[in-house]
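Input record (one chain):
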Amino acid sequence: MKKSILNIISLMCCLTIMLTATSCGNNAKKEEIVVDGIIPLISESELILRSDLIIEGTVSEIMDSKWSNPNNEKGENFRNILQTDIVVNIDNYLFGERDDNQAIVRIDKGEDENTIVSSDGYPDFEVNEKVLLFLSRDDSDIATDEDYYVLTGMRQGKYDLSESENSRSSNTINTYISSMEVDNERDTEVIDELKDKIEKEHNMHPNYSDEQKQRQIEIDNENKKLFGE
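The corresponding structure, as predicted from the sequence alone:
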C-alpha cells in the first residue's frame, strides 16, 4: 500500500514538473529579428514595367510562416529566412491574368513558434484588407518553382484600398501614392487612370524585359572588370 501511495505521489510530481516545464515553454520569449536597410526607390514607370501581374484584390488568408531552408535541407549556400505567404482573391485585373483568380504573395517576414522577423522592406497584411498590388515572379537566389509572386519593389508594390481610418497611409513611398490619397468616390477614377498609364508604358517599352536583361549583362561585365570573376 505504501508503495502504491509513493508511486502515485511520484507520478503527481512528474506531472507537475511536466506541466510547469510546458507552461514555462509557452511563456518563453521569442527571438526577435529586425531587418532594416535602404530600399532602392523605383519610378512609377519601373513599378509598372517590372510587374508581371497588377491587381486589385482582397486578402483571404495569411498562411503560417516557414523558413526557406530549414536545417540546411537545400544546402549551405541557400539562404534561410522566414517567409509568409499571403493569399489574395483577385477582384480586378489591371495587367496580366490568372485562371484561378487568386494569387499568393510571398513576403520575407513573419512569425513562428520561436522567432519573430520584422522588416521595414515589407508591408503588413490583414485578412479582408482591400489592396492594389504590383507583383512579379521571384528571381532571387532563394526562388522556388512554386506558383507565387513577390511584391515589385518590395513595400512599394502594395497599396491599401481599405476604407479604414488608416487606409492609404501604409505606403507613401512614391508619387503614385499621392494620387491614391483621394476620397472613396474617386477610387474608380484613379484605377482607370492607372490602367491608362499601364497601357501607355507597355506601348512605349514593348521590349522592356529584353532591355533589362541586356542592362544586367552590362552591369555584370562592369563588375567583373572592377572586381574580377
